[in-house]
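Budget justification, computational time. The allocation requested in the original proposal was used primarily to generate structure tokens for proteins on the priority list. As evidence of use, we reproduce two of the resulting records. The first is shown immediately below.
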Amino acid sequence: MQTDIEHIREIETASHRGSETRDPVVVQSWLRCLKKHGLDPAARGEAYILPDAALRQHRQRSEDLIRIARSGIDDLYKLVAGQNYVLLLADAAGVTVEYLGEGTQKDALRRSGLYLGAEWSEARAGTCALGACIETGEPLIIHQSDHFDISHTGLSCTAAPIYDTAGQLAAVLDISLLSSPLIRTSQSLALNLVRQTARRIEMANIMAESRTDWVLRLAGSPDFLDVDPEAALRLDEGGRVIGMTNGAARLMARSLGADWRRGASLIGRPIEEIFNLDCSGLEQLTRQHEARDRLIETRDGYRLFAHAIEPRRAPVTHSVPAPRLTAELSELAGTDPVMREVVGQAMVLARSDMPMLIEGPCGSGKSALARAIHAGGRRGPLITVACETITGEEAAVLFGRGDLRSYEPGLISAADHGTLVLDNPEQLPAALQARLASLLVTRRFRPLGAMRERESSARIIVTSRGLTANGAPREEFHHRLAATRLVLPGLAGRQDIIAIASKVFAAALGSGVAFDLPAAALLTGHKWEGNLHEMEALARTVAATGGLASDKLLIGAEHFPAHMRGQGSDAGPGSAAMLSHLLAENGWNISAVAALLQVDRATVHRRMARLGLKRQAKPVARRTQP
């Protein structure tokens, strides 16, 4: 066993004269650590685990990859179960986004960095399998004293890269041991296992993306061609490459005399440039023909067996007309199911010129919804009337004054061909309310002092806090607008309250924000009697007093006012808003949410069922009956 001093001296010697005993990949990584990253071989580094908020962002960006890779990772872990191996799936930045390890070793694994959320880039951790794999793009072993950092020399790590279908490094799969046999070749089997698993993950990924395109799967043997191919190409209808596994990229590059690492230069190449084959020949490579007969040859003379999979034919569908939300309405809807239903109704109503009633508590977004409806189709102006500011003597402000020869237009005429928003008309004098009620039905009004009525081409939207015992709109408003009434939920009742808070705080702080769990619990448990007005005021207060300074701010409960921290909350981790937030932040990974809440997966599923939380699915077209 090499001592720490011997290890440090060997790195220093290798930096000057190279090494005849170390793998060249290891020596090159040592040189990068010294010269590129400025690391000190004598320094003993500690494992770096990302904060929860940062880890959630990495996992969310890798959600699709984790979903596809999980089955392969689970199968690999079963093969090495009971041998103290740890499996890590890291993204292209070297951050572990998925982890499988023995529960009895949890503390030791976390200390060593073989844990969820650990960063294993070369710049952070020195020479390691994950970091070196990211740098080289090749499968490799970093065994014990191959590591640069002396705190990692007891580890044995083996990694293989995973590429996306555009030829870019997407992730690295690593299998590691806290302690292993001294002989480096003891990890040769582990290297083959991670290489094969990475290849299968890439194959699953390209198949998931290729439902409507040709896929050409390749193997050196006909016996395993249909069950375990070595490479695959995704082809468009013209026979051009639009996706590939890494094995296919290397095959193409060799045939074309190109660099496989430059994936973009391989995309778009016709199949004829790579194989002695044209697009019309793909039909002869389907499973209707014997595998041994499906032999093709690359332009550089390499022979392979091929399996061409035809595109899936899209079923004949009967589309159900449904309005597509405008960008403004979609932004307003968020992910709250109640709000999305309200906004969907608004989109339907926006197609017509019918007057509309928007009700909701103060600060719930009534004016914002009116603006979004207007932006979805009206070309004229948007005129908002604050009705509480108009007295009986100021009727001309609304209706105008005079007749055809000397007409002074009011706000109703100013909104022609646009939208007229009447905010809180219950505050108007009764006589003016009566005149407006007539406008809702006939779309006509009479200016002050005029003998004749004028016609209005404006869409009318009434916003109100709702019918109450005191200060409610006249019955005419309610009855005549009942069919087009939209009721907005209060902020405290929305499931996407954390997403709303992120936008509000980002606007106040001038930077993207994230909330730790205690802060998120306060936000979801607060009553928000002032709704968005109250949240905007809180964000301005935090911006002025929070002492935050960063490109990506992490806001904790300590940044909130004392009265808010001390008021208590009925919304624990099991509330709809909090659980919805955790599910969204973790890409609906039930295992990750269960770990955060320190409960089992079944408990999370039960809470989701009780609260009616479901992941939003894309609409599925209905198949027509033959």
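The second record produced under the same allocation is shown here.
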Amino acid sequence: MLRLPIISAPMRHIFPPLLLTLLWALCPALAPDARAADAPQSSASQPAATQPADAPPTVSQRAAYSVAFDGLDKHGDLEKLIGQVAQTVLKQEKPPLSRFLLARMADGDAELAVQAMRSRGYLDARAEAAVSGEAPPFVVTLKAAPGPLYHIAQWRVQTTPPGDEFTPPDAFSLGLDQAPAGESARILEAHDKLVDAAKEQGYAYAKAGKMRVVADPKSHALEVIYAIDLGPLTTLGEPQLQGFGSVKESYLLHRIPWKAGVRYAPARLREARKAMVGTGLFSAARVKLSETPDAEGRTPVVIKLIERKHRTWRAGAGFSTDQGVTLSGSWEHRNFRGGGERLLTEAELAQQTMRLAASYDQPDFRHIGETLRLSTEIAQEEEEGYDRTGLDINAAVIKKLPKIGELTLGAEYSVARVTEITTAKEETYGTMSFPVGLAADLTDDRLDATRGWKMTLISKPVLATLGNGSNYWRFDLGGSAYHRVGFSDKRLVLAGRFALGTTIGAELADIPADNRLYAGGGGSVRGYGYQLAGPVDAANNPTGGRSLLTFGFESRYRVRPNIGVVAFVDGGRAYAAAFPDGSADPLIGAGLGLRYASPLGPLRLDVGVPLRQRDGVDDVFQLYMSIGQAF
């Protein structure tokens, strides 16, 4: 039996040709025969070409060469691996100064080839190199004999001190199942996995010891003995918060995912860091074990925080040919009372709209991850189908669903004076509703998604409290998906969306105009005016509908890191019926867009044209400008 050190994948035994080159320049007599063989011969009757003494030699004067492999016909993977480390392969475009230096480089590659083959489990590998030819171009031949492939016959773990509570993972988890080849990378990775497993089982200070590999040349089998220094079994103590500034310590401690005395696990520390950053109050959080245990032998956890600014001013602007210029602004305080409370005020001013809104979020309302949101809004709107002046008051409990999204249970009261353009009827309505919503967002970026999907579902019974309206039930379903096409540059993103809405329990005339469903505009069916992708009256004013179905597709290509172009097709419409019944063909719009990646998010410029232009209703084109993708 032979005891062999495990062969590591990196190759560090490359012969440094730079030293030989320096000796060659300082000692011309080092190899006079080789220099004479390399020097060009000139006739006595023909003078040699003149060249400055300090000019570097040209490629033709160097020892140009080609490389050939011998003995690896059935081992294409080994030939590729050797080609990635062999200096004669990597430096063909800049050959050495002489045949002598080329031969030394080739000899070094023979040793590299042996190490490369051994790293793949061919422990008896042999290799030699030869340089043929008397003048450039030479031929370097790397002749390799991999020999038999060694396999792992058995493996075991030795712990210091002996840890009865430590249970090693199985061979499958370590990547050592089914007697795999004795590849050094696989064996080393298994050692790292054993250390990780020890830490997961509570040995916070576990580290790898000296590993031994015993090889049997007769059976070509390996026995791997892993050594793990477990250290003490660690239990967690009280967290020690640092740098939390104006944030209440009690609010943060409430979010720590363990109680003092539980066994250490790396996942617990990761969850604590995620909880601190997830408050939105800190720009960074560092979580580590204390260097000394407490009086009870438990190890405290030190959490160092860097507080971020809690107040933010925002301003925005948009433009579309159907709605004109829109100006917006907001002020946000994310730590209003020191416990992560969020106060947001917003204002919007457009040619046909004025809106003021405020909302207050109370985190951890009854449980961690549960938020109470109170909001109100007052608005005056002059839409295509109606004029409205109203007040909305909302209360909702939002519960986060791990790895899914949010569940919302709410209550809303709205009172508004609405004038319907079609009938010129003016009436005051009051409605009470109880929305239940489910939202999932599994995208990689909320403002500019390139992968994943998101979806929302809202069910809302509406009760009439003022005016002549009727009770009804409203359902809304919408979603979008994103896929980055796997070309080499990955600049192309394909995106799609859909929206479905329905209202049951009331006729169209009994639903206030501001509560009906409309389609058309920059956030719906581009190419058609705002609210105009649906039924209209004799004066071409939109009447709204009880249902809608819309869809859209985009192809987004990033020309430069901050500039992209978009081609899109949108379609759909609103319907007077309670469900999209196909009584009218969908309206289709198409166009092109430009995107600029700004610090605030992508700036959007879209031009859409209606492919089914209706006389007197639809313009030749629509222009949209805003911040953020269309969906």
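A brief technical remark on that second record: The chain has nine helices and 28 strands.
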